[in-house]
Amino acid sequence: MGNRMSFRLKKFKLDDKNLQLPLVKLTNGNDSEDNYFTVVIGNNGTGKSRFLRGIVDSYRKRNVGHENFSLQDKINNPQKLIAITTSLSDKFPSDSSFSRQANPNIIREQYCYLGPRGRVGGSSNRALMDKAISFLMSGFEEKSNFYQYNEIFNYLKYEPVLKLAYKVRVPVELKDSIESIDGENLKSFIAMRSENRSGIRQGTYSRFLSSPEYYWDELADAYRYAFEQQNFNRGGEFNFVINFSEENISRSDHVISHREISRYRVFDDLRKLDLIKSMQVKLYKKHGGEFNYTDASSGEASILSTLIGLVPNLKNDSLILIDEPEISLHPSWQYRYIELIDKLLQSVKGCHVIVATHSHFLISDLPNGRSNIVHFKSSKGNRIDVDYYDENTNGMSAEDVLLNIFDMPSTRNYYLSAIVTELLQLLADGQKHSDRYHDLCLKVKKVLPNLKQVDPLYDVISKLTKLRLRND
Known about the structure:
Elements lengths: L10 E2 L11 E2 L10 E7 L5 H13 L10 H5 L4 E6 L25 E4 L10 H14 L6 H12 L4 E6 L16 H13 L3 H11 L3 H20 L5 E6 L2 H6 L6 H15 L7 E5 L5 E3 L5 H13 L7 E6 L7 H14 L7 E6 L2 H4 L7 E8 L5 E6 L8 H7 L9 H15 L6 H13 L8 H16 L1
Parallel strand pairs: 3-11, 3-12, 4-5, 4-10, 10-11
Antiparallel strand pairs: 1-2, 6-7, 6-8, 8-9, 12-13
Helix pairs in contact: 3-10, 4-10, 4-11, 5-6, 5-7, 7-9, 14-15, 14-16, 15-16
């Protein structure tokens, strides 16, 4: 039996007339079954987001002979292509869930967009959360996912519990018959509504009208049940509670029963028919009370909505593109973000994750031996130069990352001071023609444009680099 091939996007060249990027190397040659991380950094305007968008566009064309890919990638397409962002101005294309003819089993589609754009325009984390819950319920047959969901809640310091709360809509026409409504009467009511609607709503109603009679009976049964539960419960709502705790997972075969999953799907169809209001998602802080998802911070909301949607979509050999995940995240969450993604990928193998970011905290969290860094740098005109950093960065301090990877010295940077001290020592020892002196001068010269002129190191570095130039 031969060695299993993992997916890797080895190289990619962006086809963009407004941005001249070379062919970009995206791995350091690691072809193991392990999941692999590439981080793309660079200032605003260097094309990081456009680069990720270009990858999505090229793969979606499914053109085996596409010249923008290396030969390895022409043969080895990903099993799943997933684009993640929380930016309200994201550049990723929408997936087929935005189509009027959306596949009801959207989780089986090859491309998945997890971003804030809604189907009818506008952007919101709420639209993304609704989609994530749909994915979650569609993927409940995979028990291995339960532990990944638990990781997300632990990261946020939440209890591993989701409560989905619903309220029934009762149109005036059904007010007197809802307690005894059957499938035939419900279908007649929707047919009447369809005649008075246009656009997306009419299309939705028309698709349901072609459903078999037995399904209309299921819809009617669920509608009556929801109405009865709403009248019985305080607050006028009915709900599902999903418990992802390790104790709950280990003591039962299913966190939520197949019957409840089926009922959720029917309720979701009732929502599409405007007979149930959009669900409210309730959460619980550890050692705290219940709160609504809409009251979560923007950082909490983005983590929940993107990663709950990610887990059920994961497959072996997936390509996962993440654009600026640090948006709205506290630095302590940024520092652990890559580790969290790595844990969520434990159930799959051979995946390639490409992250575009401005955050030096993410760099300090990259797994050793299966990650690399690509640095986009503005050059003349619209040309972008590319540098590579293949050394291990896990556990690096913020100062070290800022200086050695972002070329950005922080105030009183310890590492920059250490380099200058070594340069002065080499100079004192008569080693100004040595390779070491040459290499260190090149390093500090890259930093100089980002150093404030009032910084005491500025003059020292200027003189050291000029001295090297005079002696070259």
